[in-house]
Amino acid sequence: MADVLHGFSYSKSASRYRSDATGRFVARTQITDLLDTQTAKLEARLGNLATAAHEGKLSPAYFAEQMRTELRRGHLQNRALGAGGWDKLTPADFGSVGRRLRDDYARVANLARGIKDGTVTLPQALNRVQGYAGAARVQFYEADEKARQDAATSKGMVLLMIRDLGATEHCRSCVNYYGQGFQLQHYLPGQNSECSTHCRCGLRYKEVPAADVDTWIGKRG
Asked: Are both 38 and 143 inside the same structural domain?
């Protein structure tokens, strides 16, 4: 499938989706809301698998296999959403997804063993799968930032970014990132923060001329 959103296309220069029917750009909040919906659904599916495995309804091997399938689908889906469509994914994108999935697959194997031998409680398992869904969420921001950097560079502009605090309780790291205002580079949500892949924050971007960068650094407006 060429388009990650049916009825919408992606403008590479604007780094935004637009409606094929109206030609109007889609608000970024609609895309991030979709990302959060996808993340919540993935977390729910993983949680259902973990619950079934903990109750003995799934064998450890089948549980691990289904977890890997769901994670692979979630990572790729989020990567495509951030990149602008399935047809925008490059070998580098697939390589990045593959490297992160290898780490997650190892964690899934450890979780399956922990559930089997009784060393991982159900609340612990559910907390872990929430983090797995969050790791898949990071794929969107990696691809989205790359697309926006490329678009800004092609226009001779500089891309600045600021942390957007999500509608949830925040760790000190995320609050600190927000307090830094616009910067040339920010850690992506889910990276290098106390909440780790449980992070549900976002990023906002602004393209500015090189001569205006210093006036924007540190601003939060």
From this structure: yes
pLDDT in tens, 157-211: 999 999 999 777 889 999 999 999 999 998 999 999 999 999 999 999 999 999 9
What digits encode the pLDDT tens for the residues 102-146? 999 999 999 999 999 999 999 999 999 999 999 999 999 999 999
Instruction: Please tell me the distance from the alpha carbon of residue 205 to that of residue 100, in angstroms, as a whole number.
Output: 25
Alpha-carbon 67 to chain mean position? 18
- The β-bridge partners of 203 are 163
Q: What is the pLDDT of residues 54-108, one digit of tens each?
A: 999 999 999 999 999 999 999 999 999 999 999 999 999 999 999 999 999 999 9
Sign of CA dihedral 21, 83, 77, 25: negative
Q: Which helix (H) or strand (E) holds 175?
A: helix 172-179
Under 8 Å between Cβ of 34 and 42: no
Strands 16-19 and 158-164, sheet pairing: unpaired
**Residue tagged 């929430």 (tokens):** 130
Residue ending a domain, choose from 132, 148, 164? 148
**Token reading at 143:** 């691809």
User: What six digits make up the tokens of 8?
Assistant: 């919408």
Tokens representing 17?
């989706």
Residue 18 lies in a domain: no
Number of domains in the chain: 2
Q: Which domain holds residue 42?
A: 27-148
The CA angle 97-206-12, to the nearest 5 degrees, is 55
